[in-house]
Amino acid sequence: MFKQYEEQLTECRLFAGINSEELNQMLQCLNPAVSSYQKNESLTVAGEKSTGVGVVLEGQAIVTKENAAGNRGILAPLYAGDIFGEMVAFSGQKGWPATIIAQQDCQVIFLAPEKIVGNCPRQCQSHRLLITNMLSIVSEKALLLNRKVEYLTIKSLRGKIAAYLLEQSKKAGTATFMLPFNRHELADFLNVTRPSLSREMGRMKAEGLIDFHGTSVKITAVEALKGMVE
Fold it and tell me: Is 124 a residue whose pLDDT tops 80?
């Protein structure tokens, strides 16, 4: 029954290095649940019982978190092949730590954590690789969260924007790239107001530091942006 998701799953880092035959055998052991969500529907709700490690098969979503005052912040975007819930799944905590909202119609599978780290009844040769992949993903996710904290510790708004754009440029490998967020979502991610963000980016464009149209951004003065990150 999981054959139709083979292409999406082989592109997921959790199953990296596992061939098609091994993947299908493994999925019979893991027996994941498949769920569908419409745009703006919640994949998870903070505080509700966790249902395991999720893998996005189709669509796009965002991980959000509200503070005590009810203000929403965006932690990360999720695309096809991305996983979520791995941090809480092995922590002993029972509830989802964040709310995930579909930005497009989404299809997701949920894997029970005990089946990921437990003994494989079929003695799948790739199960050890699956666990290694999971450890790698959890480690990288912790580093990304640390990077998020770094954005928040930068004092100036321009510094936050510069740091984020430089990071995205490095990730894309080019000075021209697409942002994973719209302007409102980027403001939430950087923990600033949308008007302030738009105004500052407009100033940076007028000064010839960056150029942008919609979510497409081009850095035109790399060294100048580096100097803004304090």
Answer: no
